[in-house]
């Protein structure tokens, strides 16, 4: 008794998955687990929940759908509600900080993290009849852990006679990770592949790869809009700021006015009078010509083109028309990395100006990114106003999560933002990296949903071959082991080494991490013998300290330093210290060019760092940071990163620790004696598994050169001696016992030696 809107009905019938409804539902009814792979846009996310609903799966329990991205969680719940002619009361969503679930909810879309939280309080997921894990190919940490847990929950529910069904949905990418993994699923679950009609997409590579990919994207969009036949444009950039910048710039170039009837103004571009291979135009091919000659040719050509264009234009009343605004935002694009190429691309951009001016057709430029409000998100699915051309500027959410209708041209910067972890410190940062080749193929595919299309890659074929990885490892395998182990233990997953991961991280690393965390007091032994099991085994569980530590976005050892510093007004120092320690290569000059005094000397190298960071903050407030860094041999970028981390940690602590009111004081005094002593203890508490003992000269074997052992230490887990860093301030005192932050290798093969960095007595 579903009363679908006829329009919805028509749109649904076009989806390839509709023809598979019967086959899919038979497989669902007969199996607990099913894998559905299919091209993006084939209808998996919007249709399968409806099939299940219509088959009665939401009658007693709910249908759960997890999404790794917030933007898809909201958009898909709305779409499914609309298609089923139900309200958000029945088809709802839930994510951190936001949701509209009611007691009548039948289909519940949620982020993967939310379902993971629910498992912690209801392991058997008793509210649900089916769990759909959508976008499994994205391989988010939470999705991977969910799959591991569900592989065990499903048989448990079966044993109790209340079947739980699991449907894993994925784009057609590396499905083998789920099917050919007997630790995950003893017998491979049935797999169904939804074939979708895909029209040919012509791929165009750039000849050169320019660092200013935003400018390139803008230029390409202008060329497409002014020269190529109708059809939506989809541009991939890396983040919200880039999206907004490009949308503003495109809107300013091709503005839309409500009071103009654009349907009359457009010159019809037909397929015959243009060559979609915008890059194989002669202006881009002549590469060996003399630069000046080339530029002149380009300008002549552009002028000629612009003239031709203006001839084709119908007469319009200029008083009734908005001229494109002079775009004063160009300096928003960072020109930091500019190389010689940029100048000639500037000229090219200028030559586009006449084409822009003479183009009367507005570009309906819309942003799309994860944090965009749902109202504005929804606009990308609606047709543009008559006469305007749709142009969506998106992050990689439009790669597989959301399918935008009627895209004919894809402009791909080839970049994406990825969380990159430092294995030394556990600090993570979003970095712009090359998208994988698999990702680039997905992006290109977006141009071929409704007809033949074109994908313009704004980088060279060589970059594609050599710089883009085939695909990225799942995030779970990229995270530092300590941090992953602590996260899973906090979720109540005790056996992290034998956990049924879809792709398992290195077992030895996991074991070592467990050991380290135990030494640090973040995990502790817990005997299952208490329950009189025959094979009592020892498992490690999180301590209360560990719980506190897990709140910090840092490797547990640094989190521990922070968690223990909420006394004697140590927090501001601990935050500065930890921030400095987690950024690499702060000092470029000699550490002892630093007038290290009294207490800071007590703290050893981290004390020098602490002083440097404090002084740099003061210089920053006075606007003299650059000079200061140069003078004292500090890497300015590192100092800026430290400041960012300090701010982040400070605000997080103020939010999460009641009563904490930490500020960053640019005139922070050096710690007093007592504080310095306590800070040393904090360093020891976090680095207690990395201790060195001075090798006495009497321990040096006969025949060895004793002078070589002046700065040599013995540390527990190494046979060979380790040495104080050549810039270490402790070379002055050579203390008996030290803790160090990090060991590293120096010298060539013949003079190889292990060196301790950031050492404290
Ligand atoms: P898949 O999950 O297989 O990638 P989807 O179910 O997300 O596919 O999309 C199926 C179709 O539904 C696509 O053509 C898409 O454009 C359309 N669609 C999805 N959401 C909306 C919406 N809010 N408005 C209009 N069409 C939509
Ligand atoms: Mg989908």
UniProtKB/TrEMBL annotation:
Acidic residues composition-biased segments: 276-293, 319-338
GO cellular component: nucleolus
Entry annotated with the keyword Hydrolase: yes
Domain of life: Eukaryota
GO MF annotations, alphabetized: ATP binding; hydrolase activity; RNA binding; RNA helicase activity
The keyword Magnesium is assigned to this record: no
Disordered, as annotated region: 274-348
Domain Helicase ATP-binding: 25-191
Helicase C-terminal domain sequence ranges: 317-492
Composition bias, Basic residues: 297-312
Keywords, comma-separated and alphabetical: ATP-binding, Helicase, Hydrolase, Nucleotide-binding
Any one GO biological process: maturation of SSU-rRNA from tricistronic rRNA transcript (SSU-rRNA, 5.8S rRNA, LSU-rRNA)
Membership in a protein family: Belongs to the DEAD box helicase family. DEAH subfamily.
Name the UniProt record assigns to this protein: Probable ATP-dependent RNA helicase kurz
Encoding gene, per UniProt annotation: LOC113395657
């Amino acid at each position: 008794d579903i009363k679908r809107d006829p329009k919805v009905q028509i749109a649904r019938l076009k989806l390839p998955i509709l023809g598979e409804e019967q086959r899919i539902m038979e497989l669902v009814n007969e199996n607990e687990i099913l894998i559905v792979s299919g091209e993006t846009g084939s209808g998996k996310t919007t249709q399968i929940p409806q099939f299940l609903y219509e088959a009665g799966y939401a009658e007693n329990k709910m249908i759960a759908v997890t999404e790794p991205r917030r933007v898809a969680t909201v958009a898909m719940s709305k779409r499914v509600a609309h298609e089923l002619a139900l309200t958000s009361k029945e088809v709802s969503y839930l994510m951190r900080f936001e949701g509209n679930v009611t007691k009548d909810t039948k289909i519940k879309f949620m982020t993967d993290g939310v379902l993971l939280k629910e498992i912690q309080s209801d392991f058997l997921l008793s509210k649900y009849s089916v769990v759909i894990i959508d976008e499994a190919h994205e391989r988010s940490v939470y999705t991977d852990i969910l799959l591991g847990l569900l592989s065990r929950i499903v048989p448990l529910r079966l044993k109790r006679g209340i079947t739980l069904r699991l449907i894993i949905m994925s784009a057609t990418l590396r499905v083998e990770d789920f099917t050919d993994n007997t630790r995950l699923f003893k017998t491979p679950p049935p797999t169904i592949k939804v074939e979708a009609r895909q029209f040919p997409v012509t791929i165009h590579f750039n000849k050169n790869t320019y660092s200013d990919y935003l400018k390139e994207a803008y230029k390409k969009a202008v060329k497409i809009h002014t020269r190529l036949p109708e059809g939506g444009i989809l541009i991939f950039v890396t983040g919200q700021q880039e999206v907004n910048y490009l949308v503003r710039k495109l809107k300013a170039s091709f503005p839309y006015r409500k009071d103009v009837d654009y349907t009359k103004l457009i010159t019809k571009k037909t397929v015959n009078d243009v060559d979609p291979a915008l890059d194989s135009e002669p202006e881009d091919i002549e590469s060996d010509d003399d630069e000046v000659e080339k530029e002149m040719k380009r300008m002549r050509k552009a002028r000629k083109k612009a003239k031709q264009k203006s001839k084709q234009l119908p007469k319009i009343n200029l008083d009734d028309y908005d001229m494109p605004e002079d775009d004063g935002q160009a300096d928003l694009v960072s020109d930091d990395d500019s190389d010689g190429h940029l100048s000639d691309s500037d000229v090219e951009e200028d030559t586009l100006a006449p084409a822009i001016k003479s183009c009367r057709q507005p570009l309906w430029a819309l942003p799309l990114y994860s944090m965009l409000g749902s109202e504005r998100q929804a606009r990308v699915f609606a047709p543009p106003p008559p006469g305007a051309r749709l142009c969506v500027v998106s992050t990689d959410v439009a790669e597989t999560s959301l399918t935008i209708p009627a895209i004919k041209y894809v402009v791909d910067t080839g970049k994406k933002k990825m969380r990159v972890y430092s294995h030394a410190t556990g600090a993570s940062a979003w970095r712009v990296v090359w998208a994988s080749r698999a990702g680039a193929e997905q992006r290109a595919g977006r141009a071929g949903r409704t007809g033949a299309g074109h994908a313009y890659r704004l980088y060279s074929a060589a970059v594609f071959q050599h710089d883009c990885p085939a695909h990225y490892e799942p995030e779970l395998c990229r995270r530092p082991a300590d941090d992953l182990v602590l996260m899973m233990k906090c979720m109540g997953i005790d056996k992290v080494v034998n956990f049924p991961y879809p792709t398992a991280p290195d077992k030895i690393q996991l074991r070592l991490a467990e050991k380290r965390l135990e030494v640090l007091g973040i995990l502790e032994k817990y005997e299952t013998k208490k329950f009189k099991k025959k094979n009592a085994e020892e498992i490690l569980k999180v301590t209360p300290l560990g719980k506190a530590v897990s709140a910090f976005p840092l490797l547990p050892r640094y989190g521990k330093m922070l968690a223990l510093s909420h006394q004697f007004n140590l927090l501001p120092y601990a935050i500065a210290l930890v921030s400095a320690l987690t950024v690499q290569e702060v000092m470029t000059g000699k550490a002892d060019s630093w007038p290290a005094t009294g207490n800071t000397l007590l703290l050893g190298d981290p004390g020098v760092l602490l002083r440097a960071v404090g002084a740099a903050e003061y210089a920053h407030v006075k606007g003299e940071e650059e000079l200061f860094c140069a003078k004292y041999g500090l890497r300015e970028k590192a100092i800026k990163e430290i400041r960012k981390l300090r701010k982040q940690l400070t605000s997080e602590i103020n939010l999460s620790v009641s009563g904490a009111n930490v500020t960053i004081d640019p005139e922070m005094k050096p710690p007093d004696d007592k504080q310095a002593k306590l800070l040393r203890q904090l360093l020891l508490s976090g680095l207690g598994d990395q201790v060195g003992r001075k090798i006495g000269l009497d321990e040096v074997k006969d025949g060895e050169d004793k002078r070589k052992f002046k700065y040599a230490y013995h540390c527990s887990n190494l046979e060979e001696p380790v040495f104080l860093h050549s810039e270490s301030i402790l070379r002055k005192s050579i203390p008996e016992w030290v803790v160090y932050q990090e060991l590293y290798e120096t010298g060539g093969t013949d003079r190889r030696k292990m060196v301790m960095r950031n050492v404290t007595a």
